Every structure is written in structure tokens, then in C-alpha cells.
Request: fold
Amino acid sequence: MRRFFYVLFAVVEKDLRLEWRTKESLLVMVVFALLVLTLFSFAFGPGGGSGENARAVQAGILWISFLFACVIGLSRTMSVERESAGFSAMYLSPSDPSALYLGKVVSVAVLMGIMEVVGFAVLAVLYQANVWKSAGALAIVAISATVGIAAAGTLFSAMSARTRTREVLLPVLMFPVLVPVLIAAVKASEAHLGGGGWADSRDWIRLMLVYDVVFLVAASLVFEYILEE
Amino acid sequence: MYRDERGVFQWLPVLTLVILSFAIFADFYIAGTDRLQGAPQRIFYIHVPSAWVAYFAFFLVFIFSIKYLARRNPDDDIRAHACAESGVVFCTLVLITGPIWARPVWGVWWTWDARLTTTLILWMIYVGYLMLRAYMTEPEQRARFAAVMGIVGFLNVPIVHMSVEWWRTLHPKPVVMRSGGLRDLPDSMHVALWSTLLAFMLLFVCFVRKRAQIERLNARVEEARAAREGA
Reply:
């Protein structure tokens, strides 16, 4: 068990150190999320339209931009692994494949978390959204969604990175599978952006937690078949 | 000519054709016209069996994927592939017949009802599965990745269904069947429904067998080519 966590944290440390030195993935993720948030205000009008619907539009814009930015970040981290034969090295090392997988998930989730903080701040400024008033609740929503997105994203990007077309396939594999998380994250964020309480978002958060657990367990079990050469 | 079909299975396509002809006859002439929906209701006999066959096919993909990872028999991978492809055919049929039926009955081509949406997402997941296969060249690796996709994709189905159902609870639900479920169907409609289901199941088995046979031949061609290049 100690060895499991040792491997897990080694992967996280390696990924975050690499990111700290190059700042390649995070920068492109943040800029891309910003760009999508801006572009959507041209599509839906400033502030995401008017009236009751504006909160729903804002929540939708937010999570779609995070999902898109996440695809870009994942492609980047996985192509680094591929270019430096990281997968082969992982496979040759005598460590548990599920620890390697969970380490990757944690580092992807950390990067996404940083991007999301910027995203929420931009939403508050550009769309006059009530982010501060329910910051704690939104953080819980964001964490439960991010774990699910990172869990699915890591598994599918490890697969798509080794296809003939490289990263092109990632969204095609990942988005349909992430539909429950997207629905739940948008609905729960919408409730809290509109000043709603826990009663409105509790079921959605539970759904995301179930998804997170199911996906993390299933993907940890099958990850060794992805690493295998 | 290369053949690997012997015995009973040789006659399967013929049997399927006979039952399919009967089923089409039953759908149009034996089953009575629905009093409320009229003729469009007959799409039900194509639509519902296709959906059942598609869901069954994706379940088989899940089973063969697990079997492949456990035993590493390339034949299980071929079967999973054949089931996924045939399943997508039937799932496409569901998504095409659905709107044709919905338009005259509900007045809209599409409604974001839980069952419809789940079927659409399911279709996308398995189209992704087939694309993943198409974009990979190394057979052993392709088999492993596809098996992972087949397992994870299927595990996801109940969660997708639940989330879409909750998503739609605030909105009025369309009445999928005006009668009180299958038990209320008259006998003539039962004949049409079950004969079509049987015909589609047999058709599915024919597709899977043919597809698997073609894949096995492909594998042999690949082997022969590799051997020749090696020599």
C-alpha cells in the first residue's frame, strides 16, 4: 500500500514538475478556455443572454469551455509521454499500473483545477456571474466534475495518443462517455450561480460522485491493458 | 472458395429470409391498425425490435471484450468487433425509424426523452469504438484498446440513462406508448412484434457470423502478406 502511494505521488510530482518548468499545457489550457468563454458571449449576446435563461447559458458555456480546454491539455501531456517513451518506461517499471493511472488522473485534475479557478474568475467579470457568493458550493461541484473528466480523459487520451491519427480521436471517444458529468456539472453550477441551495444541486453532486467512483475503479483495473506493449 | 460454414448454419440466411418475409407480412397485414395513431404505429414493429437487438449487441460486445482480456483469444476480439458493427447498424435503424414515427404522432421529429437520448449517446459511443478500431493498425494492441472501450462504454450506459432521465424530469414527458404497456397489445400485434424480433435476431446472427468470417479471412490475408514480406 505504501508502495502504491509512493508510485502515485512520484507520477504526480514528475508531471507537475515538468509542467512547472515548461508551462506548456497549463498556459494553452487557460488561454483556450478564456478564448471559448469570450467567443460564446458573441454567440449568445453579452452576459449569456437576458433573463432567467442567462444562468443556464453561463453554466453551459463554462463547462463546455472547460471540457474543450481539457482536451487540449490532455493531448499535450500525452504526446509528451509518447515522444519520450513514457508509457514503455511505465510498463517496464515494476509498479502497479493503477497507481500510474491514478497519478496521471491527479496531475491532470490539478492542472484543470488551476484552469477552472481562472475560468470562474473570468465568468464573474465578463458575465457578471454570482461566483463569489457561492464560491464554496461551486468549488465542490467543480471538484466532483473535474475528477470525472480527468478520470475519463486520462484513460481515453492514453488510448488515442497511440492511434494513427494521434489526438484527433480523443474528443470522439471522450465526450459521449462524459455526458453524465457534463449534464450534472451544468445543472449543479446553474443552481448555485442562481443563488440556489444544496437542495437543488445535491442529487447532481451525488451522481457525479457515483460516476467518479465507477470510472476510477473500472479504469484502474483496465489501465494495464493500455500500457501493455 | 473458402468456406467455414457447415451444417445447420449454412441454412441460417435462408431461414432468416423466410421469417423476415413473414414478419413484414405480419407487420402490414396481420396486425390491426392502431385506433389512435393509425398507420404510423406500424413502425413500432421495426423500431422496438431493432432497439432490443442493438442493446443486446452492445451487451455482447461487453461480454466478448471481457473474455478477450481474460483469455487473449483473437476470435473473441473478432466477435466483439462483429457485434459492435452489427449493433451500430440496428442502433442506426432505431434512430432513423424513431423520428419518422415521432413526427406524425408527437408532431416533432425528435424529443430529448431519456430513452431517445440514451440511445443517441450509445450510438455515439459505439461509433467511437469502431473509429478507434479503424485508426489502429497493430492487431494485438487494437484488440486490447477496443476491449477496454467496449467494457467502459457499456458500464457507462446506466449512468447516462440516469443522468438524462433526471435532466428531463422538469419537462413534460412524451407518452411513448399510449396503451398500458406490452400486456395491453392485442394478439395480432403480438404476432407482428415477436416475429419481427425473431427475424431481426436471426438477421443479427447472420450479420455477426458473416462479419466475423470476413475478419478471419482478413487476418489470414495479413498473415500471408507478412510471411511473404518476411521471406
